[in-house]
Specification:
eight-stranded mixed beta sheet; alpha/beta; 8 strands
Length: 268
Amino acid sequence: MPSIEQNYGKWNDPEHWSHAGDEWSVFWGSTEAQWTHSILPRMRQWLPAKTIVEIAPGHGRWTQFLQPQAETLHIVDLSDDCIARCKERFAAADNIHYHVNDGKTLPATIADGSVDFVYSFDSLVHCEIAVIEAYFMEIGKKLAPGGTAFIHHSNLGHYPLYFKLAKMIPAGRQTLGKMRIVDYDCWRGVTVSPETVAAAAAKAGLEIHCQELVNWWAETRRCIDGITTLRKPLAGATPSAPPAPWFNASFMTEARVIREREEHYPAG
């Protein structure tokens, strides 16, 4: 059950960033391949955008692709070390504003109603629903009417009994996961599910545009992650019920195909 303090301790430690985050894109072949063929197709209709906020950018793995898509890009991270690394990496970019936060709020210097697009990927999966709810409340304030948020989060709460029992297995669960004997929880938040995300969105005055629940890495067959696209309704718009989630257990098959295609058609 990752806490804000545990997340700070882990991600503020440079030892967890052996290749600036690119190490977590190996299943797609490269970070660029993951962005171009997996992430961007799911949100291309909202880019470019005038003002973008990225929550938890780490060492800038996705920031490098968001920066050219924005007139103004705010990157917000709990880790002061991560923000320092991003300042070094993007020193030549004049449209990025850097913020260290408390792990659940967005800076007051980002004006309410001024943001067109909010993005977070491969970061908030390590947060519990209380943190997701807090960020949704902030997103609801910062988004302009009609604005969109694309948020990657845990879905471990959909399988409470399975992962409760899995935790009772002695050391070696990760190895058993790689052998596809038992699913590994990948340090996900245990209280996040489609139901708790939908409730958090409604409380923040946001509508769920679509929700995809996916498996992750080679160790998991269950859809332990979620990708939720949220919208801030236009004034006077009739509220709409959230659509049914899409359980996509082929997400990592897609990643494998992307990697194999990249290997077969090398650059240059």
